[in-house]
């Protein structure tokens, strides 16, 4: 068969090659994006963290029983300003509000309510003192307790802080509730906080002793920055301490993901707190 060679204007050939390369690059990018989208947990709404930071590693038997029997689900979010919603445009954008919305979709046969029992500026001892007033009346199957930030700032003695955590956990369990702890939030000044990491270690030691899971909020927030999902400026409110609407939304979604997984575990599974090292402080954080 004869081969016919067609002479083409070099400029036309170059343009055709550029178009071909462009189409090839577009197809590669499109395939990559599809691959990334396939790995994003839909429940997290585009705000993602690896399983080792999201999985609680322990069952929540009281919550599980309520979910399986289609009973009303009551969760009390006890904490300080980052539970109340400081930094958000309204309390409707706090993490407990987002958590409730997520869980209502997850468990449509349950009347799910997340009670926001956050009070700005409180220490662990203040929260323990108001358990009878702000927790008991709601008869929760789960108490999510965020504490430690203000204790570290106020330099509450570490032994006293650890004992307060144990007192609170034992009190919640006496009420018939599961317990989940939330550790400190990441913020630039944490690196310069005296003994800040020791308060996180004290929480984990108490949690391990009493077999209570810990939401690793500090490491999750670090991951959100390191993975370029947020910057420090977009993760935090203008005070560079509290969260904002977007990051509260993210934390509420990730916590809902944690609770969904924990509520699916068999009650007989061993309840152990994840062994997590005290967060390392990078040179970049130390200079903030």
Spell the H/E element sequence: HHHEHHEHHEHHEHEHHHH
Structural class: alpha/beta
Strand order, sheet with most strands? 2-1-3-4-5
**What distance lies between the first and last C-alpha atoms, to the nearest angstrom?**
73 Å
Describe this structure in words.
By secondary structure, the chain is an alpha/beta fold. It has 14 helices and 5 strands. It has helices at residues 10-39, 51-54, 61-68, 81-84, 95-106, 124-129, 131-134, 149-154, 158-174, 196-210, 217-226, 232-235, 245-263, 283-286; strands spanning 73-79, 112-118, 142-146, 178-182, 214-215. It has a 5-stranded parallel β-sheet with strand order 2-1-3-4-5. Strand 4 (178-182), helix 10 and strand 5 (214-215) form a beta-alpha-beta unit. Helix 5 packs across helix 13 (245-263). The termini are far apart. The model is unreliable at 1-45, 268-278 and 281-288 (pLDDT under 50).
Give keywords.
288 residues; alpha/beta; five-stranded parallel β-sheet; 14 helices; 5 strands; globular; disordered C terminus
Task: Write the SSE topology.
Blueprint lengths: L9 H30 L11 H4 L6 H8 L4 E7 L1 H4 L10 H12 L5 E7 L5 H6 L1 H4 L7 E5 L2 H6 L3 H17 L3 E5 L13 H15 L3 E2 L1 H10 L5 H4 L9 H19 L19 H4 L2
Parallel strand pairs: 1-2, 1-3, 3-4, 4-5
Helix pairs in contact: 5-13, 9-10
In brief:
This protein has 288 residues and is an alpha/beta fold. The protein has 14 helices and 5 strands.
């Amino acid at each position: 068969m004869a081969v016919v060679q067609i002479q083409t204007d070099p400029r036309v050939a170059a343009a055709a090659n550029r178009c071909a390369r462009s189409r090839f690059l577009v197809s590669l990018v499109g395939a990559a994006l599809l691959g990334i989208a396939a790995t994003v947990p839909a429940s997290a709404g585009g705000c993602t963290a690896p399983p080792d930071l999201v999985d609680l590693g322990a069952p929540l038997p009281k919550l599980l029983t309520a979910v399986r029997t289609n009973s009303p689900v009551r969760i009390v979010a006890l904490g300080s300003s980052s539970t109340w919603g400081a930094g958000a445009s309204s309390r409707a954008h706090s993490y407990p509000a987002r958590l409730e919305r997520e869980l209502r979709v997850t468990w449509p046969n349950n009347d799910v309510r997340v009670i926001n029992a956050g009070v700005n500026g409180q220490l662990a001892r203040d929260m323990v003192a108001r358990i009878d007033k702000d927790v008991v009346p709601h008869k929760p199957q789960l108490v999510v307790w965020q504490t430690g930030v203000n204790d570290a700032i106020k330099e509450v003695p570490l032994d006293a802080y650890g004992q307060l955590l144990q007192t609170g956990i034992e009190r919640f369990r006496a009420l018939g509730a599961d317990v989940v702890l939330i550790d400190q939030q990441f913020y630039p000044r944490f690196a310069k906080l005296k003994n800040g990491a020791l308060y996180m270690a004290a929480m984990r030691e108490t949690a391990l002793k009493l077999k209570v899971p810990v939401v690793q909020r500090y490491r999750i927030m670090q991951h959100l920055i390191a993975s370029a999902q947020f910057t420090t400026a977009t993760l935090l409110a203008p005070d560079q301490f509290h969260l904002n609407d977007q990051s509260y939304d993210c934390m509420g979604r990730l916590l809902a993901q944690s609770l969904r997984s924990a509520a699916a575990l068999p009650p007989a599974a061993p309840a152990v707190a994840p062994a997590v090292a005290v967060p390392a402080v990078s040179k970049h954080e130390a200079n903030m």
